[in-house]
Design a protein that fits this description.
By secondary structure, the chain is mainly alpha-helical. The protein has a domain of 44 residues. The protein is 46% helix and 0% strand. The chain has three helices and no strands. The longest helix is centred in the N-terminal third of the chain and has 14 residues. It starts with 16 loop residues before the first helix and ends in an 8-residue tail after the last helix. 0% of the residues are buried.
Length: 84
């Protein structure tokens, strides 16, 4: 499995107020952090597309949980009386 290179951290100064306002509006509308919005905008502006989500660090980490399985099974049961 290919490991990702460590990320780089930037400090950006002199952001125009209008740019700040628009970025904060996008963050609020999308219910995402300002950092996430800025990273997405930079990625699209430079690479031309958003990064794909990488969940490789989660692969193989599922721990069976009988209580969770029981709850999910109960949600999947159809109550015939309610569907008549």
């Amino acid at each position: 499995m290919k490991k990702q290179a460590p990320s780089v951290q930037y400090t950006i100064r002199g952001v125009p107020r209008e740019v700040d306002r628009v970025l904060r509006q996008k963050a609020e509308q999308r219910k995402q952090s300002l950092n996430r919005i800025i990273l997405d905008e930079l990625t699209v502006a430079t690479v031309g597309r958003q990064r794909r989500a990488d969940f490789s660090d989660l692969v193989g980490r599922w721990t069976p949980d009988p209580a969770f399985d029981e709850i999910m099974a109960a949600q999947r049961r159809i109550d015939r009386d309610k569907w008549k």
